[in-house]
Prior knowledge:
The protein is an alpha+beta fold. Helix content is about 15%, strand content about 45%.
Amino acid sequence: MGDYSSVTVVAVFGVVLALGVGAVFATGAVSGVDGFFGEDSEPPELLSFDTAAVQCIDDPISNSSTSIMVGDANTEITYARNVSLPGPAYGVGNASFERVNESTYTLAVPVEEQANSTRDCPGVVRYTATVQIPAGEDPWNIIIKHNNRTETTIYGNSSSTLFGGSASAGGSASADPPRNQTTAST
């Protein structure tokens, strides 16, 4: 009878060990732990930044779009937005992407004077920026700034497991404070 209890103990130990390794693997995949059967995450970076040609439009529409692609090691976020330029000699310069803290980043898009502009209108330009952040740093926030002024903040939560991935995002916009209007009567 001693032989059956030894076999039972070894079998139970094997099952417990297999369940423990499976739990560690599943937890690592869910929380974005690098290595361990997955890819190592890349550092946060601006993968691409493109602008369309400036358009002269009478009534520009300020719109934006966001798309998210969740991977095992990284999350790619693509953000596109129209920008109204302040004058005919202005355009969008080179963007930068920086980490502020563990899960907050800043995409800075300068609107600057450009020497080669020949437009006769202020213009509207659309840019598209694709950034990469390590997976598992959830929730994340990306602050979009034009000339050091916060335009909007996009935020999201992305997860990846053995069974697939998901992402969600939202945004908030800022506006200039209301101006005091005065009227003079004569």
